[in-house]
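Protein data:
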Amino acid sequence: LAVPAAERIGRQEAYKKMSKEIGRWQPLVKKNREAETLQFPLNEPPNARMATSTLVEDFHPENDMEKEVAKLLGESGVEEKTLMEEEDLELNKLSVEQVKERRAQLAKMRALMFYHE
């Protein structure tokens, strides 16, 4: 056979093979298109929400900057657990209005720090 005819036959065979391969995905694609909503990733169940305290407890510094900050906090005697315990003790002594006022003050400080950066 001539080169163009051989290439054409090769392309036709490759097309048939790929059509078969792609054809097996058609039912899944159709189901996803007809679904009202999709959740990603499609094959994994949704994870339970994690509380902030569990994230803080499980935190371990990974990169250089985090290690340096952890080292500085350790040297200064500031630890996340002690800060959280102190904050909880302070909140237990306050009334509901004072707690709301304190949270608003902290939110304002965080916003100011964010804008300053």
Remarks:
- The mean pLDDT is 80.
- The chain has six helices and no strands.
- The helical segments are 3-23, 26-34, 52-57, 64-76, 80-93, 96-116.
- Residues 26 and 37 are 18 Å apart (CA to CA).
